Amino acid sequence: MNYFGTSFIICVFSFQNRKDARYNDELSRITGYHVETLLCMPIRNGDNEIVGVAQALNKNSETDTVFTLDDEKMLATYLTFCGIGIHNAQIFDAYSKEYERNRVSYQLFHWPENDFHLQ
């Protein structure tokens, strides 16, 4: 199944009602959650690669009920930090895997049976 906004995104997308043809409301029908407004933006890493997608649903404000340009700017700013966090987590994961690989290699190399001494 392809739920709009979570499987792929290339640019900022916002809609104000569910009449937009690009919106797939199948997930809403399954969960019973009623979506009126949606703001969807990519999460990018430091290399400007998309590493995730964020969605803001149903703006709840006394003055505005639709997402504005200010909302887009605020979400984009927040997602910059999300991208940094995801990137840091990926670096830490790669470091942890490399550390474990090196630890196992070191143990194998220094195993008592592998202690080759010329006599």
UniProtKB/TrEMBL annotation:
Pfam families: GAF (PF01590). Residues 17-85 form the GAF domain. It comes from the Eukaryota. InterPro entries: GAF, GAF-like_dom_sf. This is cGMP-specific 3',5'-cyclic phosphodiesterase. It comes from Elysia marginata.
